[in-house]
Amino acid sequence: MNWPSVGVVIPTRNRPELVRRSIAAVREQRYPGELRIVVVYDQTEPDFSLACTEGVPVLVLTNWRASGLAGARNTGVLALDTELVAFCDDDDRWLPDKLRRQVAALLAEPDAEFATCAIEVEFEGHTTPRLAGQSRVTVADLARSRMSMLHSSSFLIRREALADDAMGLVAEDAPGSQNEDWDLLLRAARRAPIVHLDEPLVQVLWGRSSHYAYEYATKISSLRWMMQRHPEISGCRPGAARVYGQLACWSAATGNRSQAWQFSKEAVRANWKEPRTAIALAAMTGAVKVENVLSALHKRGRGI
């Protein structure tokens, strides 16, 4: 078969050792087609020593679009002319056959524009596979759940679909560049179901290495942005309850008990079985700390 060219965008900020690990994993891909990497430095000085022309070439750039993860990704996308574009975060690693197997899955569906794969979550020495249990993902699936196994480091997209008159680029107006990946998934699924390879081919590092792990105020604003941007979420009772439950938890973590209580009530109205509501209520009473719940869930490869 004719393997399409693939450009891999790796945004990075202040993680020199981790980004080298991510680059090495991409360069070690057993992919028969043309492969190139663009490393985009955001809010930090670039390390041009990472640039390379031998084997899999590596281009190093500075983010010239909106400050943040979304702008950095778009800087990389716009620097490429490859047939496909893939994303990899600077603290994650691809397994050697990730790209070959995922490209084959995408090409097997001529109308498909977007593909993902399952992940392995690494947290404090624990590794947990996260599978979706399905091979196609629709808008309805994504409205009901963020489906965290569809991680941005598994995104593989036909570059032409990222044009403004099609799916469009990564949303740079996402507050704090959070949930921009969920937004992109929903926009992609509106055009065609997402092809999902339900094998854990990406190792995702969770924990304090994340730039967003405990930025609760940004989590709140980005979720509210998602609700306003995608009416499918509020139109799905379990999906709305899930988001309201998260909003209640993050509000409780900031100490805003009034806001946490309001979001908890909204979650119960949408779905009284929503488990995040119980976490938020326990945090409001001081029975638990949201950080401790997060740590316990992360050890199981889960989050709030």
N-C termini distance: 42 Å
| Envelope shape | globular
Determine the mean pLDDT. 94
Q: Mind summarizing the main beta sheet?
A: 10 strands, mixed
* Residues in β-strands, percent: 15-25%
Radius of gyration: 19 Å
Molecular structure report:
The chain has 304 residues and is of the alpha/beta class. Strands 1, 2, 3, 4, 5, 6, 7, 8, 9 and 10 form a ten-stranded mixed β-sheet that branches. Helix 8 runs antiparallel to helix 9.
Gist of the model:
This protein has helices at residues 16-27, 69-78, 98-107, 139-144, 180-191, 216-229, 231-234, 237-254, 257-270, 275-285, 290-298, and strands at residues 6-12, 35-41, 58-62, 84-87, 93-94, 114-123, 126-130, 136-137, 156-158, 194-205. With 304 residues, the chain is an alpha/beta fold. Strands 1, 2, 3, 4, 5, 6, 7, 8, 9 and 10 form a ten-stranded mixed sheet that branches.
Short descriptors:
globular; 11 helices; 39% helix; 304 residues; ten-stranded mixed sheet; single chain
